[in-house]
Amino acid sequence: MNIDSIKNGIVIDHITAGKGMELYRLLDLESLDCPVAIIKNAQSGKLGKKDIIKVDGEANVSLDLLGYVDPGITINVIKDSELVEKKQPVLPERLTGVLKCRNPRCITTTEQELPQIFRLTDRENRVYRCLYCEAKSE
Amino acid sequence: MRSLIDINELSREEIEGLIDTAEDIIDNPAKYSDKCRGKKIATLFFEPSTRTRLSFEAAMYELGGNVLGFSEAASSSASKGESIADTVKVVSCYADIIAMRHPKEGAPLVASFNASVPIINAGDGGHNHPTQTLADLCTIRREKGKISGLTVGFCGDLKFGRTVHSLISALSRYENVKIVLISPDELKLPSYVKKDVLKAKGIEYVQTTDLSSVIGELDILYMTRVQRERFFSEEEYLRLKDSYILTEDKLTGAKKDLCILHPLPRVNEISVKIDDDPRACYFKQALYGKYMRMALIMKLLGVE
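Structure tokens for the assembled complex are given below, as produced in the milestone run.
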């Protein structure tokens, strides 16, 4: 299967197979006007199977969000059809607007305009806690 | 400008410094009676808590300052739907420091992001209550002369008891403290507190359901109330509320210099017959809480 190579944009590579659509939704790529391709179950030497997302145009993707959802991915930045940068997201120290606090006693349940912010409290076990009430993310 | 939202924001040295100041206030009250002349504290209590509010107000009066505020959400603009951010921005115009109690967890942190004066968390739901922990630590050091090396028992509701979690966290910074956790299975200390605090800091601890079997080992016994408002069902509350009651009989096996603490209010978990026992320190603890709040108000206002 051939997908046109992109001129100016990004390629999100090494996405865990099956997570491509989830990332497409979380990154809000449907709101873009430029061409976007999701490749599912592509062959991967490292992973066996992987998903890939190609965006041929300007897209402000959140590295924090990518690092949280799928920390093994690679982001290739393409300019004038050349690979100019490779980015490797890491598990972010702080997540804003990605998770929602489920603690019914949290202040965010009554003051809903507050940004939903989570802090990484245990990198090894990928534990995030609500900035306000310290409840663990679900 | 600094606030106090969580006890862990204070270093051990700062806590020791606050206790030193509190002890100096106890010994030389006249020296402090004008320290906050012309300053005002706003006590914003979005849920009732008579003793904590009165303690803050008494602390400010004894420093020569003044007090304004409200004691329940119904008498505040929150009942009209005003946000915490707006409330504290306005109150910052009228007061030099704010003590806030709120039923929602994290509300004082939100306040601290928006106020232009220091915020003291006076309790946010089942989450933090740092000035209670300061009162507890002051009482322990004053009664025992030290904090390191003590065996501290916690009895009752260790699951929802925010004062327990905060005090355990603060004690974990002292050397050779041993923790004894006494509760029914349903109200055990949450596993994340054990993992993140006790195990992470290498603190020796034991868990038991039987107070009598361990009371003889304790230097400090911290009793807690099984709080109705922390339960989702009335049946569960009624089943567990009388689980752990301290009586004269149970005290017979205790050390002669045991120090019994309780954050108060008490319902029935400590028999009133124990109140006259020299080991009962819970009313002194309420008094020391006022002195620690005085020390804290001065520190946050930068008053020497």
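The mean pLDDT of chain A is 90. Chain A touches chain B through 19 residues (CB under 8 Å). Further analysis is deferred to the final report.
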